[in-house]
C-alpha cells in the first residue's frame, strides 16, 4: 500500500480528519484520545488503512455497497469518459447513459416498466412514498394515503423515511414524524414466541405473520391504506429471511385491498441475494422497487425508484390541473456518472458470473455459520440468502435472550483486530442489537469465505470465554 502523491505525512490527514470531519453513525468523544480510522485503498475484497494495515472486508464497504469489489478500473474509466463528454444536465432532460441503463435494468425486472433516478436510497424510498400519496390524492380523494411498514425494517435517514422505520433507536430524538405511517409486525420466526405465535413454524408461521398485516389494514380501514413497504430480507434489523408462505400471502393481501406493494431493494438489489433482486426469489409482482447501494457498487452516487406501467400511467393524462404530474426532482440525478457506472457494474456482474458465485459462496458461508452454531452455544440462529447472512448471538438458547450489545461489538472488534471487517446490528433495536452481519463482495473466493468464518470462530472463543 502506498499513500497518494499529495499526502506527505499520514499524521496530517489524521489530524485534519479529527479536526474537521463529522463522521456518520459515530460518537466522536473517543477521537479526543484515539485516532479515527482512515481507509486509503481497496482491491478486490481487501482494504488498507492509513497505517498500511490490510483487512478482508466482509461487509462490502461497511454498508453493503461494493458488490463487485474494489479497484475496478473499467468502472472508473466509464465514469471518467462520460463525465468528460457530459457530466451533468437536469434530469427533466434525458441522457444516453440514463436511457441505456434504464433499458438494461427493466430487461431484468419482468413486469416493471419505468425508472425514476435519484442519488440515495432514502430519496428512492421518498419518491415511492410521494407517488403513493399523490395517487391517493388523485384517485381516492386523499383518503388512501397511509403507508404500512414492518417492525425491524429500515428505509432511510430522511424524516419521511424515518417515519417508516421499524428500528426505534434509529428514530430516537428525531421526531415528531410524518403522519400516516403505520407499523406491522416483523416476520422473524426465531422470535415467534414473543409474538404469541410460538407453536407455529415454517409456512404456518409465514402465513400468520402475513395475516398480521391484514389485521392492521382492517384496523386502520382498507379505504385509508395505500401502500406497504417491505425489505425482501430485513437487513439492519437482523438479516431476517422471510419464512415460507409469507410472500405469497402478502401479495394476496395487497391485491385484495388495493394496496400498492413497494419492495425496498436498497441492500438486496443487484445480486446480493444471488438473483438480480431479492423479491425475485419469491415470485411476487411489486408496484414499486427501490434500489441504491449495489446499483453502481459505490463507484458513483445513484438510486432509482422503478414502477410498473400501471403506476406510471396514473400520472400521465390530459387534465388541465398543472399539478397533475409527478413533480419531484433530485438535482444530482442529473449527474451522468451514476448510470455510466451502473451500466459497467451490471456488465461485470453478468460477464463474470457473479450471481452464480454469490449463490455458491453464499451456500458455503451459511454452512460455515451453521458449523459455528454447533461449536458455540452463543450462536442462537443463523439466517441468510446469497451473500447476505447473519448470526444472532444469545446468552441462553432456551430463552433466546440476546447477547448484550457490548459483547457483540467486542466480537466485531476482535475480528477487526485480526484483519477481518464484519458488521453487527447497532443503534437500531433496544436490547436486540445482537446479530452479526456478513455481506462480502460477490467476487469473494472460497478461501476468503473460510478466512472470514475462521476469524469469527476464533473471536467468539476469545471474547465469550474470557
TrEMBL record:
Keywords: Aminotransferase, Pyridoxal phosphate, Transferase
Cross-referenced Pfam families: Aminotran_3
CDD domains for this protein: OAT_like
Parts forming coiled coils: none
Needed cofactors: pyridoxal 5'-phosphate
InterPro entries associated with the record: Aminotrans_3, Aminotrans_3_PPA_site, PyrdxlP-dep_Trfase, PyrdxlP-dep_Trfase_major, PyrdxlP-dep_Trfase_small
Keyword Hydrolase in record: no
Top-level taxon in the UniProt lineage: Bacteria
Molecular-function GO terms, alphabetical: pyridoxal phosphate binding; transaminase activity
Family the UniProt entry places it in: Belongs to the class-III pyridoxal-phosphate-dependent aminotransferase family.
Name of the protein in its database record: Aminotransferase class III-fold pyridoxal phosphate-dependent enzyme
Classification lineage: Bacteria, Pseudomonadati, Pseudomonadota, Alphaproteobacteria, Rhodobacterales
Amino acid at each position: 500500500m502506498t499513500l497518494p502523491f499529495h499526502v506527505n505525512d499520514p499524521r496530517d490527514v489524521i489530524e485534519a480528519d479529527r479536526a474537521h470531519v463529522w463522521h456518520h453513525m459515530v460518537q466522536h468523544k473517543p477521537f479526543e484520545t484515539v485516532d479515527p480510522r482512515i481507509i486509503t485503498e481497496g482491491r478486490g475484497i481487501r482494504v488498507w488503512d492509513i497505517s498500511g494495515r490490510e483487512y478482508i472486508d466482509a461487509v462490502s464497504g461497511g454498508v453493503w455497497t461494493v458488490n463487485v469489489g474494489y479497484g475496478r478500473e473499467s468502472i472508473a474509466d466509464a465514469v471518467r469518459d462520460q463525465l468528460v463528454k457530459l457530466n451533468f444536465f437536469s434530469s427533466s432532460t434525458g441522457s444516453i447513459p440514463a436511457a441505456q441503463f434504464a433499458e438494461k435494468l427493466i430487461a431484468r425486472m419482468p413486469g416493471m416498466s419505468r425508472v425514476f433516478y435519484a442519488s440515495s436510497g432514502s430519496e428512492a424510498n421518498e419518491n415511492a412514498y410521494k407517488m403513493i400519496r399523490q395517487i391517493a390524492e388523485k384517485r381516492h380523494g386523499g383518503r388512501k394515503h397511509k403507508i404500512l411498514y414492518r417492525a425491524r425494517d429500515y428505509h432511510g435517514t430522511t424524516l419521511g423515511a424515518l417515519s417508516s422505520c421499524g428500528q426505534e433507536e434509529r428514530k430516537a430524538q428525531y421526531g415528531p414524524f410524518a403522519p400516516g405511517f403505520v407499523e406491522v409486525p416483523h416476520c422473524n420466526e426465531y422470535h415467534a414466541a414473543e409474538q404469541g405465535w410460538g407453536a407455529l413454524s415454517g409456512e404456518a408461521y409465514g402465513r400468520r405473520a402475513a395475516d398480521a398485516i391484514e389485521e392492521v389494514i382492517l384496523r386502520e380501514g382498507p379505504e385509508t391504506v395505500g401502500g406497504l413497504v417491505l425489505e425482501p430480507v430485513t437487513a439492519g434489523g437482523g438479516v431476517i429471511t422471510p419464512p415460507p408462505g409469507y410472500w405469497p400471502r402478502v401479495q394476496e393481501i395487497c391485491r385484495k385491498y388495493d394496496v400498492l406493494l413497494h419492495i425496498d431493494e436498497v441492500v438486496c438489489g443487484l445480486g446480493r441475494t444471488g438473483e438480480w433482486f431479492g423479491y425475485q426469489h419469491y415470485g411476487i409482482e411489486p408496484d414499486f422497487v427501490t434500489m441504491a447501494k449495489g446499483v453502481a457498487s459505490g463507484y458513483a452516487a445513484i438510486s432509482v425508484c422503478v414502477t410498473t406501467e400501471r403506476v406510471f400511467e396514473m400520472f400521465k393524462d390530459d387534465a388541465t390541473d398543472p399539478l397533475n404530474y409527478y413533480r419531484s426532482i433530485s438535482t444530482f440525478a442529473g449527474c451522468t456518472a451514476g448510470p455510466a457506472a451502473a451500466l459497467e457494474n451490471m456488465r461485470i456482474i453478468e460477464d463474470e458470473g457473479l450471481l452464480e458465485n454469490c449463490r455458491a459462496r453464499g451456500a458455503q458461508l451459511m454452512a460455515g455459520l451453521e458449523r459455528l452454531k454447533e461449536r458455540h452455544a452463543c450462536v442462537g440462529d443463523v439466517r441468510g440468502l446469497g451473500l447476505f447472512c447473519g448470526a444472532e448471538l444469545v446468552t441462553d438458547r432456551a430463552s433466546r435472550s440476546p447477547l448484550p450489545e457490548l459483547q457483540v461489538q467486542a466480537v466485531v472488534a476482535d475480528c477487526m483486530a485480526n484483519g477481518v471487517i464484519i458488521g453487527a446490528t447497532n443503534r437500531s433495536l433496544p436490547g436486540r442489537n445482537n446479530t452479526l452481519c456478513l455481506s462480502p463482495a460477490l467476487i469473494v473466493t472460497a478461501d476468503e469465505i473460510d478466512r472470514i468464518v475462521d476469524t469469527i470462530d476464533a473471536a467468539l472463543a476469545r471474547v465469550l470465554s474470557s
